[in-house]
User: What shape does this take?
Amino acid sequence: MKRNNGAYFLAVAVLILAFTFLLFNEVRIGNTIIPAGKDIRQGIDLKGGVYALLYPEKDDVTDSDLNAAKAVIESRLDNRNIFDKNVYVEPEKNRIVVEYPSKGGADQYDIDELGNIGSLTFREVDDKQRDSRGNYLPLDDKIILTGADVKSAKMAYYQGKYLVELEFEEEGSKIFSDATLRLKDQIIAIFMDKDLLSYPKVDEQITEGKCVITGSFTAKEASNLAGNIQAGALPFKMTAKQVNFISPTLGENAFDIAIKAGIISLLLIGLFMTIMYRLPGFLAFIAISALAIFQIDIISWAQIPLTLPGIAGIILSIGMGVDANVIIFERIKEEITSGKTVSTALELGFKRAFSAIIDSNITTLITGVVLYVMTSGPLKGFAVTLVLGILLSFFTAITVTRVLLKFTLSLGFGNKTWLYGAKRGA
Amino acid sequence: MFDFIKNRKIFFGISLFVIIAGIILTIMNGLVMDIQFEGGTIMQIQTYDKEYTSEEIEALVIDAIGKKPSSVQRLSSMESKESSILMIKFRKSDALKKEENDALLSAIKERFSFDNINASYETVEPFIGRELLNRGLLATLISSLLIFIYVWWRFSAMSGVPAAATALIALLHDAFVMLAFYAIFRLPINDTFIAAILTILGYSINDTIVIYDRVRENRILIRKSHNAELMNRSINQSLSRSINTTVTTLITIVVVYIFASIYNITSLKEFALPLIVGMIAGVYSTIFIAGPLWVMWKNRAEKKISSASATRKA
Assistant: This one.
């Protein structure tokens, strides 16, 4: 019996220490980096940035149209060096959501430009004509083909490399054949409006209108390039019907303050629990701190952006998580009062409280899930942290607390009833 | 042992008073809808210039874009004693288009001689707002239904339907109290408020479940007691459980609210306040409303059965 308690205690202690370590340190495994908990990804309501809803100016837009448009918008943002962005399609609402961090100034006003139709062109380039970043400039008199000539562009995977398979329409194939003959060993650059997408070198004449573009593409790069070429351009204009901009400083302060609020809440709860339930209360405080640490680490690893309501969700789930402990400890107190030994009371406490804990947590989970499905933007973060917190609290409130309690009991001094705030036979 | 059932009329009365006050005010004044549901624009600017009045800014706005803002507020900001936050709101049809937005920002930039303006703005078109509102209401409906089904299933020992129904009534009570609070104090309703209602729906049911769980258990232990005694005993036994679970969660939310108020983080403030109201309403409805209602329901149901069998005998 004693050995078991010790082993479980060790396991739990190691777990808590490990997660605490990972809160402040990142870990490298092979090529992947597991970020530290404290380096959690912040949502734009904290980092500052743009949140916009783009609607198509055309009726009967299909889902694949929207997806093609999404790829175009993403590469337009890429071309403006905005990489940490979140662009996604909401097909049932017939719109595209665009989020990206921004410090203000020029970028956020260009939202409408993102929705412009634009045009895709294949052009010859002049080696000497480049812009400040070393990219080829689109020359007006060197257009070979346009997006209209493209039949299809698909991403493919062949012999360990990602590439783009390109096919031109009949007319375009002929023009392409002439061009590739003339421009052998030279570059045909692909532009979206004035932005350079790709600059493949012509290896040989292509007469059938089918070719591949190879290079050191990642899967995403190949997919984006294919998507851009396939779309040609945006098939229809999109306009922004809602644009929110959050200044980073207003967000920054909010983050620090929310963290402070969280820490103070934690300490106050610890105080309350220790006063009300003495020893178990204090152990519950340890368990609940572990809950917060686990949550932060997991959210950081999953790279889910943490929003302000998300922080509120963590804080709230701490409060709710400790409820399970209240239920258990009240039960233990009752059992001790009715004359049971401490160790029996502990067993009964955990066992009998179980059904109430399950029921109350499941109902909160139900609303958490409904919230997640039906909200959008920063509020989704709240649903995520709340649900995650409650799921984790099953573990911390029950298992962790129980292991800690049984361990202290086995150490010998845990037997005094006053440690539990109860008087036998009262 | 306090008799919750006998004194139930007082408790019902208090709740009804608050809710009816809310309803009357809603009918009289309407509910204040935030721009998120109605549509409109909110612009927040952080300024270090102490010398400005709301009237002056209002005039500046009219001058710059020809629209009158629905409100101009000045909020203090704690992290720097010198700065304040200027909040300009436009309602519904006055929502700013992009050109107006830009024009206003440059007018403000000029007035305060900023090099870099520290502004946040949010514009919502009314149709998006309406969609959000509908979604919020739908979410509330779905949650209520799911919770009802769950409680019905788990508490069949308390005759599923009365248990689920009274629990649901207690929840709706909490939602109405939250709405009444907002109506009385004319606070704007937005999707954060809806999220708060959903959270309270999921949370407030917890204390009710704590008591019903005890009833479920006592039913087996104390076979012969009738409904009122069973419920009274269960409530009294669960009193510290109910109160303490609410206190721990309240601590967290009150701390968040205090911090949000001091530092003027509107979004957190708007989130924490309805939660606080909802939680207090929640513990009240659990202890004083749900239990007594269940007793009344069961008693009436049993009376019907016994009178039915009496007439059959006769």
Q: What stands out?
A: Chain B has a mean pLDDT of 81. Strands of chain B lie at 40-47, 71-76, 84-91, 119-124. Chain B has nine helices and four strands. The CA atoms of residues 73 and 198 of chain B lie 30 Å apart.
